[in-house]
Write a structure and sequence with these properties.
Elements (H helix, E strand, L loop, with lengths): L4 H13 L17 E7 L22 E4 L5 E4 L2 E4 L3 E2 L8 E9 L8 E13 L6 E2 L5 E2 L2
Antiparallel strand pairs: 1-2, 1-6, 3-4, 4-9, 5-8, 6-7
């Protein structure tokens, strides 16, 4: 089973930009989700995981919010990318390797993961190293 290319692109626009899919789906009229949150993980959170599954714990790690709009995400040809680099807090204590990322619904706690994937290359996190997901990074629906 697969989706049509036009619908895949429409679905990405609905999820990442809040754009209605005519005659199928509207963005929530009252209190729509305005921000999506990038997270870093030390292992694959898997389809059964949530945003806390294998999440990084270095000090002062926090998820990074990106506006759920065309100002936050670019959607083209069934693929989505952040408009700008996603810069996580710089490590001041602890060290670990981020092997995966997630994009989810919550700023903290066990929010719903919309997409997750492998970071290539992995991000080795240590003091003074700024963890970044580059704006050229993509999630593709196919």
């Amino acid at each position: 089973m697969s989706k049509g290319d036009t619908f895949e692109n429409d679905l990405m626009k609905l999820l990442f930009q809040g754009t209605t899919i005519a005659n199928i789906a509207d963005n929530a009229a009252s209190s729509p989700l305005a921000t999506l949150y990038f997270g870093l993980h030390t292992a694959d959170p898997a389809e059964s995981g949530n945003q806390t599954t294998s999440e990084c714990t270095y000090t002062p790690y926090a998820r990074v919010g990106v506006a759920r709009s065309a100002a936050g995400f670019t959607v083209t040809a069934n693929s989505v990318s952040p408009v700008a680099d996603v810069d996580f807090p710089i490590c001041s204590s602890g060290s670990e390797t981020a092997t995966h990322f997630s994009i989810g619904t919550a700023a903290s706690g066990s929010g719903k993961i919309l997409y997750s994937g492998t970071l290539t290359p992995n991000i080795v996190i240590a003091a003074t190293v700024p963890p970044t997901i580059r704006k050229e990074s993509t999630v593709t629906e196919d």
